Amino acid sequence: MKRFLFVSGWAHGSDCAESFCNTLSKTTGLACDRLCPAGLISHCPQPVPRSAYCREVLSFLDGHKDATWIGIGWSLGAVCLLEASLEQPSAFEALVGCGATASFCSRPGYTAGIAMERVHSMLASLKKKPSLILQRFFRDARFPGRITDALLHSLMETAERATQDVLEHGLSYLMETDLRLSCERISVPVLLCHGKQDRIVPPEAARFCAEHIPDCLLRDFPDNGHYLFDSPLCIDSIGAFLSGRGLL
Q1: What region does 75 belong to: left with phi over 0, alpha with psi -120 to 50, or beta?
Q2: How far apart (Å, rounded) are the C-alpha atoms in residues 216 and 28?
Q3: 3-class DSSP state of 136
Q4: Alpha-carbon 145 to chain mean position
Q5: Is the whole-model pTM more than 0.90?
Q6: DSSP letters of 172-197?
Q7: The domain that contains 239 carries what CATH number?
Q8: DSSP classification of residue 101
Q9: Per-residue confidence of the chain (248 residues) as pLDDT tens digits?
């Protein structure tokens, strides 16, 4: 039995792309399970190790050995699934990375990330004015669309249900994780969907992954930013990618 596993991004719940997941299931005939970063580590003892997201995803898959999986990760969720596929190459039949990156932060010789100082600033602001940093993040994530007050309120409620430790851990994970030198060992087919107007993960990060992952297809979305799930192009691209590899 083949299924999708969707893992959402930082500060988002597992239902952040509910309409997308439902439509994808109807289109492909495959059920879609959903996880979120906060849920993955909320029960982990302190201090939560950096590898907790990857380990918890693999633990989830180990509990569902009757299924074969196509992973769909968004942002932090995409990093987590790439790491899981490196840790256990047989975990997935294919991966879809939306707003994906091998290294969220810029590093020496690598400018396709966010400045480390910016993430440190987010961490500091999260301790002092969490609502301010979360609102700014949600608006940037939905750019170039305009986020409604109702949607912003719903996203804030979800984020505020997570403890501050969980939110801080997510940012620390993004700062510390660097999969660049491991990309060539990713052995499953990978589709990268990336918005050219992404304010969270630079499009150059997706191009780096596409150049270094052996079996990788990059689809640019010129009219979208970091959140791609309100674009029909996303589902169309996933369907075509999986069909082309005999996975549907």
Answers
A1: left
A2: 21
A3: helix
A4: 19
A5: yes
A6: HHHHH---GGGGGG--S-EEEEEETT
A7: 3.40.50.1820
A8: -
A9: 999 999 999 999 999 999 999 999 999 999 999 999 999 998 888 889 999 999 999 999 999 999 999 999 999 999 999 999 999 999 999 999 999 999 999 999 999 999 999 999 999 999 899 999 999 999 999 999 999 999 999 999 999 999 899 999 999 999 999 999 999 999 999 999 999 999 999 999 999 999 999 999 999 999 999 999 999 899 999 999 999 999 99
What's the rounded Cα separation, in Å, for the pair 8 and 142? 14
Here the tokens at position 170 are: 């997510």
Domain count for the chain: 1
* Residue type for position 230: D
Please identify which residue in the block is written with the tokens 């150049």: 211
Q: Hey, how many other C-beta atoms are within 10 angstroms of the C-beta on 127?
A: 11
Nearest in space to 76 (alpha carbons), one of 171, 165, 146, 150: 171
Written as six digits, the tokens of 201 are 């993960």
What is the biggest distance separating any 2 CA atoms in the chain, rounded to whole angstroms? 50
Among candidates 57, 76, 62, 40, which has minimal Cα distance to 205?
A: 76
- Size of the chain in residues: 248
DSSP per-residue codes, 20-71: HHHHHHHHHS--EEEE-HHHHHTTSPSSPPTTHHHHHHHHHHHT-TT-EEEE
Q: Residue holding tokens 């304010």?
A: 199
Strands of the sheet containing 94-98, edge to edge, are 32-35, 2-7, 68-74, 94-98, 190-195, 216-221
Write phi, then psi, for 46 (nearest 5 degrees): -85, 145
- Residue-range definition of the domain harbouring residue 65: 2-244
Pairing outcome for strands 68-74 and 2-7:
parallel
